[in-house]
Design goal:
Rossmann fold, 7-stranded mixed beta sheet, alpha/beta, single chain, 199 residues
Length: 199
């Protein structure tokens, strides 16, 4: 895949605005400010394909990016406290509506900040993905911000905190060192290749 050719396709503020599914989709989920836009930019080797903000809760829409036979879907961040209840409800309906739909969602990359224990929202999302049998991979972001010992301690902590930890594919990611980027790309390419074979 030529990642440089990825393009922003569209942004939707409500689930009802989404057009019918026309190709396989890979979604990115996680709490506000966990680094979804940063990861997307690193995968596609672009600085500003996905707009990165230091303000949590900036992505208030579902953003679609297209490349070859795949749509990459950036979901709004969850768990940001400082927004109006009505807005929070809209985000929740947007995320749930998307994940509950009959769209061709091949995989969800669920991003969790490696420096901290998963939030209640993170655990809820993991349990939801397990219950609905949506395939997912956990990306542990900001891996470069932990020294070796702290990192090992967090990994041990995750083993206790994340349900079915040993059965989940987990990838540490760093936007500074590019750790994890190739692993994510390999997963994407495997899915895209499977799709090509099915045609």
């Amino acid at each position: 895949m030529n990642y440089n050719k990825a393009e922003f396709t569209a942004a939707y503020g409500t689930f009802s605005q989404l057009p019918p599914c026309s190709r396989m989709e890979i979604a990115f989920a996680g709490r506000s400010n966990v680094g979804k836009s940063t990861l997307i930019n690193k995968i596609f080797n672009r600085k500003n394909l996905a707009r990165v903000s230091s303000v949590p809760g900036k992505t208030a829409t579902i953003n679609f990016y297209g490349l070859e036979n795949v749509y990459f879907v950036d979901l709004p961040g969850y768990g940001y406290a400082k927004i109006a209840k009505s807005e929070k409800r809209r985000w929740s309906e947007l995320i749930e509506g998307y994940l509950n739909s009959d769209r061709d969602i091949r995989l969800v990359f669920l991003l969790i900040d490696m420096r901290h224990a998963p939030s209640a929202d993170d655990i809820q999302m993991i349990n939801y993905l397990i219950e609905t049998q949506l395939p997912f991979v956990i990306i542990l972001t900001k891996a470069d911000k932990l020294k070796k010992t702290a990192r090992m301690e967090r990994m041990e902590g995750f083993r206790e905190e994340i349900p079915y930890f040993d059965d989940i594919h987990i990838i540490p990611f760093s936007s500074q060192t590019f750790e994890g980027v190739e692993q994510v790309r390999e997963i994407i390419e495997d899915l895209a290749a499977e799709d090509e074979e099915d045609i």
